[in-house]
């Protein structure tokens, strides 16, 4: 297999956007959410999908479709509609729900975070999802990213290494009717070979390198979005595309900051 590298930077304004740690400059004086408790999970009721729709519309317009800080726009209308539809607030502990539609990541417990809305939308758009696609997600977390993808593809397989988060996400997704999402407990570095190959793979934690098993499980013509870099070093969001001959084209999108990919690798 040969690898060709193409470096492309996306304009994201004056600061590098982040998925897990950095707060935006306009978060406001009350935007310091408490650390998420480990026992605050409540399975949501289906009506929760209709709540706070106006806030989601504002989130999509000001943070994603027409960002006010100069970052690159997300323009795929199907992705924007999915972001409008998914009730982000029910994918986090109750104590942090008031902050759900702020332009920032938020803690969900167990040292993990839910990525800021812009990052979720950008990574989803980079996958170029199609209705018949089967997608692998590494790092289920709260289940929010999987829920967004579920509206755009045929099936989402999602792996989470922290048992409590996997169980919560499974109950949450089932409670909200996301029936085309399948989750399991496991080490995402090794992928999900039983369900491979995948049309697209999305990784929601930073790896020190692109895991070879994930490249192997990506279909020819498939796309992978993954943050790569150390926890205390610069991380970059990468877009990989697998050519028909097995070659991997790599685009470097932007500097980001994610929680680390954990496991025994």
CATH superfamily: Vaccinia Virus protein VP39
Task: State the separation between the terminal residues, measured CA to CA.
Answer: 22 Å
Topology pattern, helix = H, strand = E: EHHEEHEHEHEEHEEE
Write down the overall geometry.
globular
Q: How many domains, as an integer?
A: 1
If strands are numbered along the chain, what order do they take across the biggest sheet? 1-10-9-8-7-4-5-6
Mean model confidence by pLDDT: 85
Main pleated-sheet profile: 8 strands, mixed
Number of strands: 10
So what's the oligomer here?
A: single chain
User: If classified by CATH, what would the architecture be?
Assistant: 3-Layer(aba) Sandwich
Strand content: 15-25%
If you compute it from the alpha carbons, what radius of gyration comes out, rounded to the nearest whole angstrom? Answer: 17 Å
CATH class: Alpha Beta
Helix/strand/pairing category:
alpha/beta
- Counting DSSP H or I runs of 4 or more residues, the number of helices is 6
Give the proportion of residues in helices: 10-25%
Please name the CATH topology: Rossmann fold
Low-confidence stretches: 1-18, 20-31
């Amino acid at each position: 297999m040969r690898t060709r590298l193409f470096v492309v930077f996306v304009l994201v304004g004056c600061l590098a956007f982040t998925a897990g740690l950095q707060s935006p400059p306009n978060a406001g004086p009350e935007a310091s959410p408490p650390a998420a408790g480990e026992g605050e999970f409540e399975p949501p009721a289906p009506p929760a999908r209709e709540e706070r729709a106006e806030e989601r519309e504002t989130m999509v317009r000001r943070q994603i479709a027409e960002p006010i800080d100069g970052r690159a726009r997300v323009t795929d209308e199907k992705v924007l509609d999915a972001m409008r539809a998914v009730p982000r607030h029910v994918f986090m502990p109750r104590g942090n729900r008031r902050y759900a539609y702020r332009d920032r990541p938020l803690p969900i417990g167990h040292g993990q975070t839910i990525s800021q809305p812009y990052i979720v939308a950008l990574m989803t758009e980079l996958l170029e999802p199609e209705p018949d696609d089967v997608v692998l997600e590494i790092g289920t977390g709260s289940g929010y990213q999987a829920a967004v993808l579920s509206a755009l593809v045929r099936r989402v397989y999602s792996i989470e290494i922290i048992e409590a988060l996997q169980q919560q996400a499974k109950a949450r997704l089932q409670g909200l009717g996301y029936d085309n999402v399948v989750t399991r407990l496991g080490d995402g570095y090794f992928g999900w070979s039983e369900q491979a190959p995948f049309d697209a793979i999305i990784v929601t934690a930073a790896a020190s390198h692109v895991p070879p098993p994930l490249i192997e499980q990506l279909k020819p013509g498939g796309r992978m979005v993954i943050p790569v870099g150390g926890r205390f070093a610069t991380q970059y969001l990468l877009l990989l595309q697998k050519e028909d001959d097995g070659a991997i084209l790599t685009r470097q999108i932007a500097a980001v900051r994610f929680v680390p990919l954990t496991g025994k690798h």
